[in-house]
Design the sequence.
């Protein structure tokens, strides 16, 4: 009990000291107002930011992107041209044993489709490289190249993804 009273007395004394210290004279503490030296680092409020860099594509970028789109479109046309015969060959090989004549013919036709898809992947690889270069240029300047490359990349990726879905579907049919 004596120990408890001693603890309560200590807490009461500390509380009183803290309350009284809050009433101390404020004149002896420094002001928190801004000092002249701190104004040296301020940005003037009337300063206007630098004008944005105009969005202009690099020389020849539009022609490069158009060429890559055309290459992907040609590869896709080759794919579509081979698609019909591959679909017929896979349909004919349905249920056939691996290594049979019809299964082999279907496998060769699927290989032609995969080759055409690989041709569409070449422009995609070049677009990856251009995207890296354009993103580096966009850090310090215009992002017009990056936007154009990303748009072209989406178009080519859509072609390649549709071709992949067709091939995967035919492979699943051939597998049984």
Sequence:
């Amino acid at each position: 009990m004596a120990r408890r009273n001693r603890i309560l007395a200590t807490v009461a004394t500390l509380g009183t000291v803290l309350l009284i210290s809050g009433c101390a004279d404020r004149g002896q503490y420094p002001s928190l107002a801004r000092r002249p030296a701190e104004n040296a680092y301020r940005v003037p409020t009337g300063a206007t930011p630098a004008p944005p860099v105009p969005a202009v594509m690099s020389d020849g970028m539009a022609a490069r992107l158009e060429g890559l789109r055309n290459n992907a479109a040609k590869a896709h046309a080759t794919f579509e041209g081979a698609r019909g015969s591959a679909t017929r060959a896979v349909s004919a090989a349905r249920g056939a044993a691996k290594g049979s004549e019809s299964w082999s013919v279907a496998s060769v036709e699927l290989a032609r489709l995969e080759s055409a898809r690989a041709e569409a992947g070449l422009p995609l690889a070049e677009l990856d490289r251009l995207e890296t270069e354009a993103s580096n240029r966009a850090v310090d300047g215009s992002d017009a190249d990056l936007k154009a490359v990303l748009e072209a990349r989406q178009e080519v990726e859509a072609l390649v993804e549709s071709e992949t879905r067709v091939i995967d579907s035919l492979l699943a049919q051939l597998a049984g």
User: Anything to note?
Assistant: The first helix runs from residue 2 to 21. Residues 35 and 41 are 11 Å apart (CA to CA).
